[in-house]
Amino acid sequence: MPKGSKALVNARRAEIVEACAQLYGSLPFKEITLGMIGAKTSFTRTSIYNYFRTKEEIFLALLEREYAVWTEDLLALAASPRPASEFPSAFAETLAGRRCMLKLLSMNLYDMEAGSRLESLVSFKRVYRDSLHAVGACLKAHFPRAGDEAVERFLYAFFPFLFGVYPYTEMTEKQKTAMKQAGVAYKEYTMSELIRAFTEMFSAFLSGGT
């Protein structure tokens, strides 16, 4: 356990996570090293080991942070419900700024979880659980007739769907060219458009209360 007050420990952890986030904005996961993360902090690289054991744990903490912010937005939406017809757009908007979260989910989740200690993984899963509950609260607030089974079906379809949002909407030009030459139909969507379209498909089902 690192020395210092709880506030200092949390501040140091947050600084490390933010340094990781800045690097991940322009570099792929595999190219980022602990040394690079340490160089962007105000303390020595070796001090990182007092807070995180591996690079994967830092990235998992970043994902945890992203989920926590998303959950706050979801709870705000649940607390101020709109007409059901407006829900798909409002719901998609909660993920409009979560590019980092969706990128981590689609590309690096397995490595992050495999390379992290159990205590770090449990901490992340708790925040993930909170996001599940928050989405459920949004659905209940906007579709009061929706039963528990309908909400559960949405959750079990939507959360796996999130794994594909980033790679579909952030396709490189080379990938687009390959799709075209292979004869694969591809329609471009933004993240918000894709999430809204998915949610709209479930709206009638949720409104039915089954």
- Spell out the CATH superfamily of the largest domain: Tetracycline Repressor, domain 2
Total E-strand runs: 0
| Biggest beta sheet attributes | none
Which architecture of the largest domain does the CATH hierarchy give at level 2? Orthogonal Bundle
Q: If you average the pLDDT, what whole number results?
A: 94
Molecular shape: globular
Q: What is the CATH class designation of the largest domain?
A: Mainly Alpha
Individual helix count: 10
Overall SS class? mainly alpha
Work out the helicity level.
Answer: 55-70%
Residue stretches low in confidence (pLDDT < 50, at least 5 long) are none
CATH topology of the largest domain: Tetracycline Repressor, domain 2
What is the CA-based Rg, rounded? 19 Å
Quaternary status? single chain
SSE order, one letter for each helix or strand: HHHHHHHHHH
Number of domains: 2
List the helices and strands and how they pair.
Blueprint: H1 6-24, H2 34-39, H3 55-79, H4 87-93, H5 99-107, H6 109-114, H7 118-142, H8 148-169, H9 173-181, H10 191-207
Helix pairs in contact: 1-3, 3-5, 3-7, 4-10, 5-8, 7-8, 8-10
Structure explained in plain terms:
- There is one protein chain.
- The protein is an all-alpha fold.
- The mean pLDDT is 94.
- The protein folds into two domains: 1-52, Arc Repressor Mutant, subunit A (Orthogonal Bundle); 56-207, Tetracycline Repressor, domain 2.
- It is built from ten helices and no strands.
- Helices cover 69% and strands 0% of the residues.
- The termini are far apart.
